[in-house]
Amino acid sequence: MTVSGFTFNAFSENTYVLHDGTGQCVIIDPGCYEPAEQQALQRFIAEQGLQVVLLLNTHCHIDHVLGNQFVLDTYQVPFLIHEADAGTLRSVSAYAPSYGFARYNPAEPTGFLTPDQPVQFGNTELEVRFAPGHAPGHVVFYHAPTGVVIGGDVLFQGSIGRTDLPGGDYATLISSIHSQLLTLHDDTVVYPGHGPATTVGAERRSNPFLN
């Protein structure tokens, strides 16, 4: 499995395309809002000859969902979130204009993610791990064979997700990090929702929030 990343919108949000040798791919957290951002994502998929088969959100804060409807309009694929974040997704329409996103086009999920149901595309299987605290329905996606986590806004290089937004809770987030991420091998690469990738081991050793 290959992870390809893009940084979109005013929040510098990381959007990921996961693809394997079959040519199938999934798009995770499309933050593309401006036409140039949408075109960059679409151009990459076309140039790589990829077939989009699924849209996933780690969680549904505004910066991670701005491109959801664009992806659905372009590729007509299933769209999955954790059910506990459905309210988070629905609330975006109310505050998007005040953040400067007057053209936000809301999308409705076609189904829900559960930790006991892996996500599959091509020859790839992703484990769904429930990791609330930053958002009530936050999940991360773990690919054991390559030691990769698509982590959303749970754990960052030297930091953690904020917990002062509706549905956030600091103790819950710390518990999620310890149970869902720090139980993985030190070499596991974490691709976060913002900023550079890191590893479980690096954060275990030096992240000030985890000591």
From TrEMBL:
Any Pfam family matching the protein: Lactamase_B
Record-annotated Metallo-beta-lactamase domain positions: 12-194
Keywords, ordered alphabetically: Hydrolase, Metal-binding, Zinc
SUPFAM superfamilies: Metallo-hydrolase/oxidoreductase
Cleaved signal peptide residues: none
Alphabetized CDD domains for the sequence: metallo-hydrolase-like_MBL-fold
Keyword Magnesium: no
Superkingdom of origin: Bacteria
Cofactor (UniProt): Zn(2+)
The name this protein goes by in its record: MBL fold metallo-hydrolase
Species of the source: Hymenobacter endophyticus
Source lineage: Bacteria, Pseudomonadati, Bacteroidota, Cytophagia, Cytophagales
